[in-house]
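Thread title: Can someone regenerate the structure for this chain?

I was given the following input by a collaborator and told the matching C-alpha cells would be attached. They weren't. Posting the sequence so someone can regenerate them.
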Amino acid sequence: MRVYRERLGVPASWWQLTAFLVLLLGTILWAGLSIIAAVVVYVLLGGGSAAILLIWGAVTIEVTDNELRVGSQRLPLGQVGQIAALDAVQTRALRGPRANAAAYLLIRPYLPEAVYIEVVGRPADRPYWLIATRSPARLAAAIEGARPRSSQSAPCDDVAGDHAAQPATGEPADAPSTGRDTNAW
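Best answer:
Regenerated them for you:
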C-alpha cells in the first residue's frame, strides 16, 4: 500500500524562462535565414528543452509499507535509521561542504529543503540518502509512520561480538596487554 507519493516536477517559472530563452536563441540562430530554417530551429530548441525539463521533473518519491522508492533507487524500510526533515541551510550544508561522496543525493535547485535518511545494516555502501522535497516534514513522517509496519528484519544483522578484535598472537581478546605495539613502524 502506498503511504506517500510526490512528483518533483519543474516549477512553471522554469518553463517560462526556458520558453523565453528558446525564443531568444532561436531568433538569433534564425536571423537572415528562411522561414523553414526558423521553424526547424524553434522546433529543435523547444522540443529539446521541453524534453530535458520533463525528464528532469519526472522523478517520483514513493513510500510504501515496506520500502522507499526515489526515482529508480529503492531502500527497504528495515534499513532506515535516523530520519530528519532539513531546512534550507541544513540541506545546503549536506549537499555541499559536509556531503559524503558515497551518499545518495537526489537534489534539485528549485527545492531548497530535503530529508536526511540514515542507512543502517550491511552493505553500507551509501551511509545516507539526501532527498529534496517540497514537503520534508510530510515525507519524514510518512517514512517514520510506515517503518513500524515494515515486515523487514532488524536493520543490522550483526551478532554481538562477531567482530571482536583478536590479537595476532593467538591470545584471547580479554587477555592483559603485554605492552608490545604490534603496529610499530
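Strands lie at 2-7, 60-64, 67-70, 73-76, 80-86, 104-106, 114-119, 128-132.
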